[in-house]
Amino acid sequence: MVWKPEHKTGIPIYRQIMNWMVKQIEHGHWPAEMKLPTQRKLAEQLQVNRSTVIQALEELKADGLLTGKAGSGIYVSQPGWHELIHGAIPRWKERINQSLCQANSQTIQLINDFEKRTDILRLGTGELGPELIPSGALQGTMRQVAITERDFGYSEPKGHIQLRNALTDYLKTRGIQANAEQIVIVSGGIQALQLLSIGLNSGQLNMFHNSPSYLHSIPSITSTSITSLDKMKLKSNQSFYYVIPTLNNPTGISLSAVERQELIKACAAVNLPIIEDDVYRDLAFEKPPLPLKSLDHNGQVIYIGSLSKTVSPGLRIGWMVGPESVMDHLADLKMQLDYGSSAIPQLVAAEWFRSGLYEQHVSALKKQLKQRADFTEALLNTYFSDFAEWQSPQGGFYIWLRIKQPIVTKALFQLLLKQNILINPGYLYAPNDYEHIRISYSYCSREELARGLKKLAQELKARLGGINNEH
Amino acid sequence: MVWKPEHKTGIPIYRQIMNWMVKQIEHGHWPAEMKLPTQRKLAEQLQVNRSTVIQALEELKADGLLTGKAGSGIYVSQPGWHELIHGAIPRWKERINQSLCQANSQTIQLINDFEKRTDILRLGTGELGPELIPSGALQGTMRQVAITERDFGYSEPKGHIQLRNALTDYLKTRGIQANAEQIVIVSGGIQALQLLSIGLNSGQLNMFHNSPSYLHSIPSITSTSITSLDKMKLKSNQSFYYVIPTLNNPTGISLSAVERQELIKACAAVNLPIIEDDVYRDLAFEKPPLPLKSLDHNGQVIYIGSLSKTVSPGLRIGWMVGPESVMDHLADLKMQLDYGSSAIPQLVAAEWFRSGLYEQHVSALKKQLKQRADFTEALLNTYFSDFAEWQSPQGGFYIWLRIKQPIVTKALFQLLLKQNILINPGYLYAPNDYEHIRISYSYCSREELARGLKKLAQELKARLGGINNEH
């Protein structure tokens, strides 16, 4: 009866209170229809703020374990706990668990949650760090760009015409001929993938990809890794071949011009359309081979680009390019999902392309990324070279670090998290890959990289030692 | 051989060329493997720009009927037309047709397409017109609002904390207690509906609603209208009850305080959670009853709000409020769909709530809408009173006009479109409703309302006359 929540356990106080209350009900200490003490009394007894008590009570009411009666107080729900779990209003937990939509993996959820904290060293984060985001220039554009009353209305299905026209010119410089009707503006590359995966199949969709792949980390997209192009024959009418031909995430590898030709040919031979995710292209240190889309004579390739990696993920601006009939269909679908993207970031993006700010920015950014890549490789040479290997990055953000023993487990991920180090482990990108870590040199400052990588190396070494001792 | 595209048919020139080419192939005039004339020659022969020819050729290549061979020209595809339709690379049409995602109805597609034209009288458009959008004030906020480097990064799963905190205060003034963890920022109310419909069911979801309903116009959401609350017992574990209790779209009707209590009770009795779509609340001319959510003691109501109707749809800012566990799940799902909403409009919205600009704006807006409502009713009295009926609007945008004969057909919709008048016919909101038109007084200018409604009345009268003559 004198239970009290503990501070510093990492579990929020209201959650601890919830757990305690559930136990009281489960064990029969609190029978059905029992009236609970007042919020004030509970707060006194548990020595917490009243608002914390209210939060716990609200959650348990939402779960159906408690029932509020207006003006009278809060009661343990009528049908008893076990029945409730299987038949309560509104049975949210059941609905969530039965949901067709798979939740993100626990690791991804933790990454998404921890990334909002400022005291975390984000060694794997796939975005530009605060120092590299051109926020001053973006704010300048926001202050200048002309936004009409009409722009503040609903968007056209395919996105703002100014941005699509600007993209027509931009794509031309990358070897791709596309008119505005063949372009759909999306909220980043991930929305393009979702539209493609739900908009062009009858329920059995499968995306083929090389292993390891970013796609493996998105639970709502069913994907299969293949090692040889010959195996792509299967179920081609429900499938795509997904590829990041330039600076693959997470490996950083780019396909050669010949490999690109071969991939197009192999996919054509088995009637398999290609999704070309080209969001890292403009960050290649040396000019990369032309996109697959530029070699596409049969409308076989859907091309995806984005400003999330090159300028700012917070803009949520990406694009899809493909045959007009396909784009018509996917734009219609986007209207049903979110009624188009926000006009403001679309106009900011259009102005960046039109004015040349975009090209200036990426040109300077590439130099900074190259310096960071060199700096990071020097750190790896110092701390990791005796137990890990990697290839020198050709651009983008990532070094695909291979530890010589399979110790990059979920336990290690969580152990590092407790020390405020966030990594992107290999198992996010390929099943049962416990050897790799995706190191990103784009997010942390140099000081953070130095500190974080040193600590990471220590932890890894300790584990390697541990394993060696076991033998 | 001397066929040429016709101008002024309404069918784009490149589409006419496509149709002509398909016929040539279908009828065997152009056999498989035939090499087509050069683009230049075709352009000369058809007397069109070369870019128009290229567009037609690209589309037919995308459809698999033509094949481009690099450096050699364009050929009629190998396997012949009929085989191609059933087995071509990449068979986009087949994929689109088999897609699980239903396209918007033809009427909605036409509305979405025509709304981008400036010469159209939009008599049914459910948004603020250019005169009512506070674009000056919004631009002012854009110039002032502080956006940090961090804000230009990826968003938190539930949305920017500044906006969620501002909404906590805003919701309190509407009778709703919610902390920031119980709120998820979405790209408008429609995205909230999509997240709810895909995130909380195992595939058999059904939304119940009163008839007529806005929900009926969204093909990707399966919905059923019910006339009595008793019938809601069915399949409750896969269902929601969807309601716009204040200023329903399209009818403009609001539920009384007693009706709200009864609805909550009736839904609780059959274990049915409620989706309360409250996007019009702040546009009620007189203070409306409290939201259902404020009466919700059991976490039974998911509440939806938005700035699309009150400030600007181009911002794409809405919110969902519900039990934390449900919001956790839906925020995770949103990350998979679009990685969160753009930071810029979120910060603009937060500043509008914080500074009081929002309340000032809606207070002035309501007065303007009331004047427009009165002006529009006067027009209806002048032109429509002998063959139609309606109720005086209590707020929002709409008058649900009932014509005394079922003449509001797809044919009428298209006839009016040819005269540059865009209406929202009743059949969008209830099956086989050919009696109603949703008139909106929020979008057109007064001059346009006067001109458009007069013309609409003439057309309707002519049709009524026609029908009378037939008898």
TrEMBL record, chains A, B:
It holds the Pfam family GntR. Residues 11-79 form the HTH gntR-type domain. It comes from the Bacteria. Keywords: Aminotransferase, DNA-binding, Pyridoxal phosphate, Transcription, Transcription regulation, Transferase. Coiled coil: none annotated. InterPro entries: Aminotransferase_I/II_large, HTH_trans_reg/aminotransferase, PyrdxlP-dep_Trfase, PyrdxlP-dep_Trfase_major, PyrdxlP-dep_Trfase_small, Tscrpt_reg_HTH_GntR, WH-like_DNA-bd_sf, WH_DNA-bd_sf. Its cofactor is pyridoxal 5'-phosphate. In the C-terminal section; belongs to the class-I pyridoxal-phosphate-dependent aminotransferase family. This is GntR family transcriptional regulator of abcA and norABC. The lineage of its organism: Bacteria, Bacillati, Bacillota, Bacilli, Bacillales.
